Structures are given as C-alpha cells and as structure tokens.
Amino acid sequence: MITKSSTLQQLPADLDRERLPRHVAVIMDGNGRWAKRQGMPRIMGHRRGVDALKDLLRCCKDWGIKALTAYAFSSENWGRPLEEVNFLMTLFERVLRQELQEMMEENVQINFVGNLQALPPSLQAEIARSMEQTRQNEDIAFTVATNYGGRQEILQACRAIATQVQQGLIHPDDIDEVLFERHLYTTNVGDPDLLIRTSGEMRISNFLLWQLAYSELYVTDTLWPDFDRQEFHLALRSYQQRHRRFGKV
Ligand code: IPE
Ligand code: IPE
Ligand code: MG
User: Of 124, 154, 163, 235, which is the most exposed, with the fewest CB atoms less than 10 Å away?
Assistant: First the structure.
C-alpha cells in the first residue's frame, strides 16, 4: 500500500529541490465515483482514499515538503446520506487511532481545523489526543480540514475580532491582514503554495477561501483513490513550470 521502494522515496531528478512548494493543499475528490466505477459502494472509495492520503503524506515527507493540508469533510458534506456521514466519522476515528503511533515515529505533527465541536464526541477525543501527542513533532505539519468551511472560518475570525473591538482591546484601524490571519485556523501553517484538486472539478468548494488568494491551482482528472506518487510528481512538475507573479510583472 505505502510505496517504500528507494527510487520513489527520493525526489525525482527532474524536480528542483529549491523550488518545491512549502505548503501543499489537496481537495481529495472523486472517492464515490472511483467506487462506482469498480462496482462498489461509495464508502469503499473513502476507504481507499485514506490509503492515498497516507501515501501522499509519506511522499511529502520523503521529498521535503514541510506542510500538507487535506480537505477531509466540508461543512456542506453533512447534507449527504446519514449512512455515508456516519461511515466517514467512524473511519476518521479509526484511522486516527491506528495511525497515531506511526505519526509519532515519522515525526508528523497533526492538526485538525474546522468546526470540531460539531463532530461526534468520541472523534473529538481522538482528535484532541492526536494533536496533543504530536504537538512537538516537526518533520511535517499535517492539517486535516474536517467539518471545515472557508466562509465559516472567515466568520468566526470576524466574530473574534469584533469581540476584541467591543472590549476595547483593539481599534478597527488595527484590523489588517496580519491581525486577521492570526484568527484563522491556519495561523501556524500559512497559505498553500499549491492547491491540488482531483476528479476534474474546477472549483474550490468552500476550501481555504482566504488562504488560496495566490496559490497555484492544479486540477487532475485522476480520482482521489488513484492519486499516487507519479500523479503528485506531475503536479509538482507543473508547479515548477509556473511563474508566480503575485500581481507584479
Ligand atoms: C471526496 O470524494 C471525499 C469527501 C467529500 C468526503 P466524494 O465522496 O466527493 O466523491 P465523488 O465526488 O462523489 O466522486
Ligand atoms: C469537496 O468535495 C470536499 C471534500 C473533498 C472533503 P465535494 O465532493 O464535497 O465538493 P462538490 O460537492 O463537488 O463541490
Ligand atoms: Mg465529490
């Protein structure tokens, strides 16, 4: 499942180590379609999707990428059939429990972002435990967006800042990008340099609305469970061919 062959562990020769994205974000889409194509129920796609994510995390670590952020469950995904939602919640919890030891061994710092209070209490407990235990790890910052919505994130930041203004702690003129970013979930990890979306959809689906302002976008038709090191290699090659101008000439 996890590719350990030494050739794949090394950064491919056509990639420039100096110009790798520091932070990669991924919208892991297409699990359901993948399963349907195999004649299996949608949930099997989610199961295989976990394997793809584990491999990508390991690959980022092997290739020297310092931050990976994955969209696991959007605030809109509650609208799916209850059976699928329940399966996903149970899956997240089980995977977290199973992988904690390995994340410690691999020096991965895991962080969850989103409205976590609305998740099942047993999942919340597992999240808290894994975040606490991996807090000091520093090889890679792995962020999982769960019950995450970009608009909701911006609103909660606004509420927190408005409260500070109301309490007289800050003045409205103090509100700038730096202050605002301190109230976002991603305050420690910053903006993604590269956003990858699988399954061909050309949209953001309420992911990291603020943070993606100047990210490079890469969309592949490959469905998430099939997204492997070769696919990631292609995404990085595309990224390295871009000229990031940030509005300049
Ligand atoms: C992405 O795959 C995983 C989640 C949103 C949890 P989908 O479940 O959206 O798969 P498709 O898009 O229906 O194929
Ligand atoms: C985005 O995928 C959310 C996640 C990958 C968790 P969706 O499948 O929910 O997005 P839409 O519905 O195609 O926009
Ligand atoms: Mg989808």
Answer: 163
Q: Which domain holds residue 28?
A: 22-149+192-240
Pocket, ligand 1, Cβ cutoff 6 A: 28-33, 73, 77, 88, 199, 224
**Spatial CB neighbours of 80, under 8 Å, sequence gap ≥ 6:** none
The CA distances from residue 185 to 29, 189, 233, in Å, are 22, 9, 28
Residue 3 in domain = no
Q: What is the dihedral of CA 92, 106, 61, 13, to 10 degrees?
A: -130
* Predicted TM-score (pTM) of this structure: 0.96
> Could you tell me the strand order of the sheet in which 23-27 lies?
108-113, 140-148, 67-74, 23-27, 194-197, 216-219
Known active-site residue 228: no
Ligand of minimum distance to the alpha carbon of 224: 1
Give the CATH number of the domain where residue 111 resides: 3.40.1180.10
Q: Is residue 165 part of a domain?
A: no
The CA-based angle 107-128-63, given to 5 degrees, is 25
Q: What is the pLDDT of residues 161-207, one digit of tens each?
A: 999 999 999 999 999 999 999 999 999 999 999 999 999 999 999 99
Q: Which of 119, 197, 205 to mutate to test the pocket of ligand 2 (most atoms within 8 A of CB)?
A: 205
Residue 77 annotated as catalytic: yes
Q: Which ligand 2 atom is the nearest neighbour of the CA of 77? A: 9
Closest-lying ligand to the alpha carbon of 88?
A: 1
